[in-house]
Amino acid sequence: MRKVLSFVLVLTLVLSSFSMAFAATTTSAGLSDIDGNANADAIQVAYDLGIVTGNPDGTFLPAKAVTRAEFAAMITRAMAIPDSALAGYTATTFKDTTGYGWAVPYLAFCQSKGILLGDGAGNVMPGRTINTNEAMTM
Length: 138
Prior knowledge:
Number of strands: 0
Order of helices and strands: HHHHHH
Radius of gyration: 15 Å
Strand content: under 5%
Largest sheet: none
Shape: globular
Distance between the termini: 15 Å
Number of helices: 6
Helix content: 40-55%
């Protein structure tokens, strides 16, 4: 799973280096649990760009595995899709999004753009840990 996180962070750095679409304002707020992490700088950049948001308590949990729903949100944010553009994405055709209301706009956007296809049986498995092949496909 650390490979997926590393991929996301590298993708963030690469994308942000050539596009002003990702311009962000630096905030004084940070993530309380990334100091000393080998990827702290990349995580902070992703946080400053709004690609990752952290948890309500101010933590990031860098060792936690990334779920498919979380990755869909990161991909959407990395593409600099504004919240106003996501307002129309209120539902998906996936059958298993109950309990993931926060992720439905991201999942629906990714589904509509062919970024996320699901398992072919109508499931997106939003709570399952994303693997490297799935992340690369997205």
